[in-house]
Amino acid sequence: MYYLFVLGSLLASIFPRSICYAFAELVALFNFCLFVKDKRRIDYNLRAIVVDAKERKKQVKNVFINFSTIWLISFVIPS
User: For residue 67, what are the domain limits?
Assistant: First the structure.
């Protein structure tokens, strides 16, 4: 995880924000495919508010993307 942070910091200092956001979304989609246990936990938590399984899967993916974007804004891109 540390190396991902260093890579993100390096990319943020070199590339424009639009590319950084695209990179953050790519990392989020990679994590979405890789971390099955986390997907299950998020899906379980969303069952209380999202009944439809297709919609819930879409929302789980959005959680990964939003987390990655917030992480990028908060820690990598300097204000």
Answer: 2-74
